[in-house]
Design brief:
Blueprint lengths: L1 H12 L2 H16 L5 H37 L5
Helix pairs in contact: 2-3
Length: 78
């Protein structure tokens, strides 16, 4: 249980690039025909968590960019 909490905290600070890199490594492992079946579910579960992290980072960036664009579209008071 403590390990899950520590992993969740680490995931919150995990950047998009790092999450994507870890996801890429997992995908490479999953493409290997010799993958250990005992770790398959764990790797798929971690990949799903990383995908959620990446989507969250993309959504946050999208909101921030939209906010900036909206501010740029506001008329300048003179």
């Amino acid at each position: 249980m403590a390990d899950e909490a520590a992993e969740a905290t680490n995931d919150e600070s995990l950047g998009y690039t790092d999450a994507l890199g870890e996801l890429d490594a997992i995908l490479t492992d999953l493409e290997d025909d010799d993958i250990d079946i005992d770790v398959l579910a764990t790797k798929v579960q971690r990949a799903a968590a990383l995908i959620r992290i990446c989507r969250g980072r993309i959504d946050a960036a999208k909101v921030e960019v939209q906010k900036i664009v909206t501010e740029l579209d506001e008329p300048v008071e003179t």
